[in-house]
Amino acid sequence: MMFSTQTGKTECFFNVIGYHIDHDPAPIILMEPTLSLAEAISKDRIAPMIRDTPSLRAKVSAVKSRDKNNTIRHKTFEGGHLTLIGANSTADTASRPVRIVLIDEPDRHPMSVGREGNSSAIIIKRAANFWNRKIGIVGSPTIKGASAIEDHHKLSDQRKCYIPCVHCGEWQLLKWSNVRWPGPDKSGVLYTPVYRPEEAFYECESKGCNMSDVDINRQVAYHEWRADKDFNGIAGFWLWEIYSPWTTMRGIVRTFLEARRKFKEDHDPEPMKTFVNTTLAETWATEADRIDGSDLLHRREAYGPAIVMMAGFLTCSVDVQDGWLSAGVVAWGIGKESWRVERKVFRGNLARPEAWNDLAVFLDKIYKHESDADMPITCTTIDTGGHHTQEVYAFVKEQSKVRRIYGCKGANTPGKPIVSTPAKSKTTEIKLITVGSDTGKEWIYSHTKITDPGPGCMHYPMNYPQEYFDELTAEEVITKKVRGVPQRVWICPPGKRNEALDIEVLNLAALELANPDLPAYVAFMQAGGAAAKPRRGRRVLNKGIE
Fold first, then answer.
1. Whose CB has fewer CB within 10 Å in the chain, the N or C terminal residue?
2. What is the Cα–Cα distance from 392 to 499, expressed in whole angstroms?
3. This model's pTM is above 0.85
4. Do 99 and 79 meet the contact criterion of CB atoms below 8 Å apart?
5. H or E element: which one contains 409?
6. Angle at 177 between CA 172 and CA 180, to 5 degrees
7. Which residues, 6+ apart, have CB-to-CB distance to 384 below 8 Å?
8. pLDDT of residue 536
């Protein structure tokens, strides 16, 4: 079932569970993306279902602290049992054989569990011994070509929901393109100076009849599922939010208009991506596959050495190579508009202190703003990977006493946040930040396409050479199978270097960690530093980082 969110797909699983407890006892397993989510669903959804359904309450006892047969994640009943697990737990995915396998939101699962591979594939194999096994997979899609639920759906007969028009009786598949509302463009039949989503309606594809939310909800009762492919043993269903009785076209249009506004004005694709995935139940096709560095070279601008008037916050990032340190300074303005300020390379034997001392001196550099105010580097991130990890740990530990600096390690996981939970161990003695490298690269590549000055635009100075742009655009995205699952993978072709791209991602991570009030910092610098200095933002990541 490739469905929008809040369309009852998980509720179907609860009905399956209740049916088998009451009528056809069997070993059942329900897998959620994480163990904590599995426990929450057990407490908030399954426990009340059992409690409030007499036929189930009589067969499943209440959870008791000393009863190993009925716990939050494992419930037994005559003839079977129900186990709830998280896809992120290796031990849970390699447990007992089951006849009924229920997999929720596979796109949110980790690509691999330990060394065993994809969690969904592992659980499905647990049902191999049962001739009458049943496997259910439900979820909302994500990235085109790398969506697990889309991959499963393609193997099915791909059924879609058709309803008859309330006026002319013609059967049709409801499409987003036929939702209309008054506005200053072609979104509706009535042209108005402003958008009026509260007047949204559905235009019949056959006769042009107008259907309201009430009409659609009434006609859904007479629906038919029609398959696009021949049945091959796998039934597949696709449904988007307009069919849900809990939503309205007015709400859908408002969500779309806000997502489109952020996409156009703030150059932020995330709300539109969320709309496509969770409302339309369609995969998001990203444009960040490949960029020509020559196009960016011709967009260089004559600014500097003073920091431009529109910027108010400086970050620095450091990429560690075998024989040198490569640092890049970026100035940030409102809406994450950014200006490359300086790139510096410190060569030498990194097992010795010389290059590290030079870097420390560089991080103390005070830049001049166009308002003549002094402007220091406020937050620094440094890569901890490579062959000099211990030297990086030592540098960060020492420098964190006098500046805001973080050691970072990249995670090539699609959809992972730019910065996530810090980890501190006795061996490192520093807090390590996990950086969502793939997410950062997607952000960088999509924002290089913005050519008009303003929010999200990336500016480059005249003294940045061709080499920088070759490194910035060195990587490309391909879709390939990883342990049997399609995944978008960033690759750097042989012979190319990607230092500039890594530096940009780390600078973006530094900005996310600092979380500054950019408008306030810009106003402060434009006033020549005479006003009250704004406070740095505070980003809390689980246990907290200030």
1. C
2. 17
3. no
4. no
5. strand 405-411
6. 100
7. 320, 392, 393, 396, 407, 408, 409, 432
8. 57
CA distance 46 to 44: 6
Give the pair of three-digit tokens for residue 339. 């200006």
Tell me the C-alpha distance between 393 and 395, whole Å.
5
End-to-end CA distance of the chain: 42
Sequence-separated (6 or more) residues with CB below 8 Å from residue 462: 300, 301, 302
Residue with structure tokens 């056809």? 24
Which CATH superfamily is 2-154 part of?
Answer: P-loop containing nucleotide triphosphate hydrolases (3.40.50.300)
Tell me what pLDDT residue 113 has.
63
Q: What is the pLDDT of residues 312-322, one digit of tens each?
A: 999 999 999 88
CA angle centred on 436, ends 88 and 148, rounded to 5°: 50
Cβ burial, residue 142 (10 Å; 0-12/13-18/19+): buried
Residues of the chain with pLDDT under 70: 62-69, 90-95, 111-117, 186-190, 286-290, 422, 425-426, 428, 479-487, 530-533, 535-546
User: Tens digits of per-residue pLDDT, 23-77?
Assistant: 999 999 999 998 889 999 999 999 999 999 999 999 987 666 556 667 888 899 9
Between vectors from CA 470 to CA 465 and to CA 474, what angle results, nearest 5°? 160
pLDDT digits (tens, 9 = 90+) for 259-287: 988 887 777 778 888 999 999 999 987 65
Q: In sequence order, which ranges of 157-292 are alpha helices (DSSP H)? A: 213-220, 249-265, 270-274
Tokens of 89: 């737990």
Token pair, residue 376, equals 């220091």
* Other Cβ atoms within 10 Å of 203 Cβ, number: 17
At 308, give phi and psi (nearest 5°): -60, 155
Class of domain 293-465+500-526: alpha beta
Domain locations in the chain as residue ranges: 2-154, 293-465+500-526
Count of beta carbons in the 10 Å neighbourhood of residue 112: 17
Tell me if 490 sits within 8 A of 445, measured CB to CB: no
Helix (H) or strand (E) holding 443: helix 437-447
Strands in 80-86's sheet, in edge-to-edge order, are 74-77, 80-86, 27-32, 100-104, 134-138
Neighbouring CB atoms inside 10 A of 531's CB total 12
Nearest partner of 139 among 319, 6, 300, judged by Cα:
6
Q: Using CA atoms, how far apart are residues 200 and 217, in angstroms rounded to an integer?
A: 15
Closest CA to 385 of 320, 329, 335, 445: 320
